[in-house]
Amino acid sequence: MDFLGVTALLLSACVIFLLFNLIQGRKENKIRLPPGPTPLPLLGNILQLSGKEAFKSFIRLAEQYGPVYTVYMGMERVVVLCGYDVVKLALIDNGDVFSGRGHMPLLDKMSSGGHGIVNSNGERWKQLRRFSLMTMRNFGVGKRSIEERIQEESYFLTEELRKTKGQLLDPIFYFSKAVSNVICSVVFGNRFEYEDKNFLILLGLINNILRGISSVRGQLYNVYPKIMRAFPGPHQTFCKSIDGLQEFIVERVKMHQETMDPNSSRDFIDTFLMKMEQEKTIPNSEFHMDALVKTTLDMFVAGTETVSTTLRYGLMILLKHPDVEDRVHEEIDQVIGRIRAPCIEDRSRMPYTDAVIHEIQRYIDLLPLGVPHKVTRDIEFMDYVIPKDTTVYPLLSSVLQDPKQFKYPHEFNPGHFLDNEGKFFKNDAFMPFSSGKRICLGEGLARMELFLFFTTILQSFTMSSPVAMEDIDLTPELSGFGNCPRAYQLSLIAR
């Protein structure tokens, strides 16, 4: 094709895209979409979003267009919600309508057809979530038995940390091993030894997932998946990590099939296999092998990465704020002492420690964009109309840093969760696990783990950093879907 032919083709394409945007714009004006910046053909509004700190770009747009606005991620329309009042109105007051799971191609890679808990919708999601909640409770989640399991793992962790004898260490895999073993005992029926090389490989794969989905190229993949599949980068590592974890889970399922007792369930996989057997004659049952693998993957990844990252980030914050660490030590000594193991009943008598853990979660803002939702029907919302199946970003960052709810939204301050008498103060804007119908399945387990692991570590050790306090950088290394802390080292000295 000659130069004039190529030029004519490009001009024709531009005209077509301009006409498409014009027609689309007229349709949207008729349905009263929330306002937003004018999108470019193909690109949408991505040039107005920072790849390194997308959530800050979204918050800046809210300052211009209001707390409910429309952007285009490439050709896809997305409605963004900012601030506690708006997110509450959507996820809690209109929870049923906003209960759909929105579009995010890297999450689609995990679910492969919308299976599992995280990325499923409709009746499939309801059945799998109901079953998973019931099964987790049956295996002790929320009860004394899981508390004892966490206490046991906390003991193993502290013994492992004692072996360092105060030498510098990178805490990343210490915490991953301990936290992962708790969910492994529920899902797989056993824990792994800390020296297990295969276990370390799995934890490395899980760490790659959060980093991959939070990278700039991972965010571009979510906008242009077909194009980005051809380019190298962290998003490719994400996909390979998912494949590796799924292969491991498939092998574990095979082992369960060979050894299970139909009259006695050992763990989540056994219980799911029994449910599959019960429903094998039901057409279109949601309990089949794909659903088992994807649901187990969701629980394994979420049950490992979120809590372990919070622990790692949390100790880094305490290195930056040694006065806070000192007060936590003092409260631990007063309420628990240094002999017996911390228990969950101690939390109600330790308001300062509880406030510190809450403030760590608020401050690190682990999932700033939240996991995307979608509306299950057309809805009138804040004087606008959001059409059915529109993807919605409820910005958890805008809730956790809402200046109307937190006096010092961008500072670490445990006082956000303490009243004038020093008692723990519950704030409804505390939504690190999201809220409403899609609130994190493992919220209760995560809260129990965070309290018991934090208190056990700080009961046993004081911390020091090779870096001067003022030089500790708490800003995330990666900030996209998730906020990933920078690598650091610390020394843990036995008390």
From TrEMBL:
Q: What membrane topology term does the record carry? A: Peripheral membrane protein
Q: Tell me which UniProt keywords the record has, alphabetically.
A: Endoplasmic reticulum, Heme, Iron, Membrane, Metal-binding, Microsome, Monooxygenase, Oxidoreductase, Transmembrane, Transmembrane helix
Q: What class of enzyme is it?
A: oxidoreductase
Q: Can you supply a Gene Ontology BP term from the record?
A: xenobiotic metabolic process
Please list every transmembrane segment annotated in the UniProt record, as residue ranges: 6-23
EC number(s) per UniProt?
A: 1.14.14.1
| GO molecular function terms noted in the UniProt entry | arachidonate epoxygenase activity; heme binding; iron ion binding; oxidoreductase activity, acting on paired donors, with incorporation or reduction of molecular oxygen, reduced flavin or flavoprotein as one donor, and incorporation of one atom of oxygen
Highest rank taxon of the organism: Eukaryota
Q: Where in the cell?
A: Endoplasmic reticulum membrane; Microsome membrane
- Chain positions recorded as heme binding sites: C440
The cofactor required is:
heme
Which cellular component appears as one GO term in the record?
endoplasmic reticulum membrane
Q: What family does this belong to?
A: Belongs to the cytochrome P450 family.
What is the protein's name according to its record?
A: unspecific monooxygenase
Kindly list the organism's lineage: Eukaryota, Metazoa, Chordata, Craniata, Vertebrata
